[in-house]
Write a structure and sequence with these properties.
The structure is a single chain. By secondary structure, this protein is an alpha+beta fold. The chain has two domains: 65-264, Metalloenzyme, LuxS/M16 peptidase-like (Cytochrome Bc1 Complex, Chain A, domain 1); 280-501, Metalloenzyme, LuxS/M16 peptidase-like (Cytochrome Bc1 Complex, Chain A, domain 1, 2-Layer Sandwich), CATH 3.30.830.10. It has 18 helices and twelve strands. It has helices at 2-28, 102-119, 148-157, 169-186, 188-199, 204-207, 212-216, 220-229, 245-258, 280-285, 330-341, 347-355, 386-402, 407-426, 428-441, 447-455, 459-469, 482-492; strands at residues 65-68, 73-78, 85-93, 129-132, 136-144, 235-241, 291-296, 302-311, 359-369, 372-382, 475-480, 497-501. A hairpin with a 4-residue loop joins strand 1 and strand 2 (73-78).
Length: 503
């Protein structure tokens, strides 16, 4: 009896082993089936039956009260918040030159904020935020009015020569190195390579970041020197949400007495790259060939995709005061990003996600900075959808140039643009961020003029913008498993040259 049981057990084991072998063999031989391309589809934008009409109201473009305290210091007063908190944002701005090593300074300021969170007696210390860009860096707090003076003292203290005495530089270094690994999965890695491809290797926005040698050998003295170097040629701006004039007057006095000085006459080494402007013709002939760049990521189950254009910037003195909505107008970039790339109702999202299920999301964004303006469409897709996804984006760029959008779609675009301005005014943080962006661009209070332009927008104007900007091949950069997707790319995009590059 025992012998028969043993024989049966061995037989079962043999069968299980055989089934497992067959299963594994089948998995190894599974062939990736790639998705077919389809003609682009757009929504008909039919309204909901019985839906109420929404009155969006008007943009109030005069909410900011500006007080120029000195040539390099200004106070910008905003209406008080409903929460009764006083929002403070101390901003250093330089529209003419990008900040050097701003990623390092931002990381150090965040580390200082963590230290202050454990030691400061401010009840609002956990609201401390750092908002850094290439042309501005803002330190922000939202505090009870009674703590506003103390809060501003703390913000200004972040710019004193002893600001980083108590922080751990090893932690700053580790965080910067950790960010590099996180970026490989979050999209930061491909965006770093994208910036080099779309702007050029020697553009200051690329040269002024990711200084590994400095980060590895950073000393407290060097950190302070890097921070103080940002002051040259810059200006100070304090944004405050309050109607309490006595308190605001006290804050203004503190600014003029205690802020580190900035000077436009201070010696500053400015290379030719910092005055970087590409003429319009060079921008539109920089990518005459259909080139697709791919970063190999073996084992990646998704393909990250970036498709876009570098747009020209015309110097202020050459710009007509009347918006022309040509390729050099920042509103053109913004409108095309919204038309094709806004979530839910944008053409790309509607077709490639809602109708075809090729992605969780596909978006468009205009990156508008003083020395570079780019239009980027971005998203991720599964490996088997790679060719169809990229081909779908290109088909929509072509369709946008070929035919005018219908009245309902034009109306939806106008409502979306107007809603963005109005939503920004409903949140103090959003209003501050938008205003800081305008300060860094050197063009304040543009919302009202842009709203008027959007209201007068015609379908023909939108199509003309698309024809001008989409008339040349876009820059395409993807990150995915080359061995698995290369054949699909060659089949779906036969006219495109595929170049493998390293991150």
């Amino acid at each position: 009896m025992k012998q028969s049981t043993l024989i049966l057990s061995k037989a079962n084991a043999l069968i299980c082993s055989l089934l497992l072998t067959i299963s594994l063999s089948a998995c190894q031989q599974t062939k990736l089936v790639f998705t077919d391309t389809k003609e682009p589809v757009i929504s008909d934008f039919k309204g909901l039956n019985g839906a109420p009409q929404v009155n969006l109201g008007q943009i109030d473009d005069n909410v900011w009260k500006v007080n120029e305290l000195t040539k390099s210091v200004a106070l910008h007063q905003y209406p008080p918040s409903r929460s009764k908190l006083t929002y403070l944002s101390l901003v250093l701005v330089n529209p003419k030159h990008p900040f050097n090593n701003i990623d390092l300074i931002s990381s150090a300021l965040y580390q200082r904020a963590y230290t202050l969170a454990a030691t400061s007696k401010l009840s609002c210390i956990e609201s401390f935020r750092v908002q850094a860009g290439m042309h501005s860096i803002a330190l922000q707090l939202a505090c009870p009015e009674i703590e506003a003076v103390q809060a501003l003292t703390l913000l200004m203290g972040s710019w004193q020569t002893d600001a980083f005495d108590s922080i751990d530089l090893d932690t700053v270094r580790r965080q910067l190195k950790l960010n590099k690994h996180i970026n490989a999965y979050s999209g930061g890695e491909i965006d770093k390579v994208w910036a080099k491809k779309i702007l050029g290797q020697h553009h200051p926005y690329n040269l002024n970041l990711h200084n590994a040698a400095l980060q590895n050998e950073l000393s407290p003295k060097e950190l302070i020197e890097q921070q103080q170097a940002l002051l040259a040629g810059s200006s100070w701006h304090l944004l405050v949400s309050s109607n309490t004039n006595d308190m605001v007057a006290e804050l203004a006095k503190m600014l003029t007495l205690n802020l580190p000085t900035t000077s436009v006459n201070k010696e500053r080494k400015v290379s030719a790259d910092l005055a970087y402007r590409k003429p319009l013709q060079e921008v539109f002939t920089q990518n005459p060939q259909k080139q697709l760049y791919i970063i190999d990521a073996p084992g990646a189950i998704q393909t990250q995709v970036r498709v876009g254009y570098r747009l020209p910037i015309v110097d202020d003195e050459l710009t007509n005061t009347t918006p022309s909505l040509d390729e050099s107008d920042p509103l053109s970039c913004q409108l095309l990003a919204s038309w094709l790339g806004r979530s839910f109702s944008g053409r790309l999202y509607y077709d490639l996600r809602e109708k075809r299920g090729l992605t969780y999301g596909i978006y468009g964004r205009c990156f508008d900075n003083p020395q570079a303006r780019t239009l980027k469409f971005y998203g991720s897709t599964q490996r088997q959808h790679t060719g169809a996804f990229i081909s779908g984006i290109l088909d929509h760029l072509a369709l946008a140039s070929e035919s005018e959008l219908k009245a309902a779609e034009l109306s939806a675009l106008k409502i979306h643009e107007k809603s963005k301005y109005l939503l920004a005014s409903q949140s103090i943080n959003a209003a501050f961020s938008r205003y800081i962006k305008q300060l860094s661009q050197g063009r304040q209070n543009t919302d009202l003029s842009q709203e008027k332009t959007v209201n007068q927008l015609s379908a023909k104007t939108v199509q003309n913008m698309a024809q001008t900007i989409f008339s040349t091949p876009p820059t395409i950069l993807i990150r995915g498993d080359v061995d698995l997707i290369i054949k699909d790319l060659e089949d779906k995009l036969p006219e495109w040259t595929i170049n493998q590059i390293k991150p």
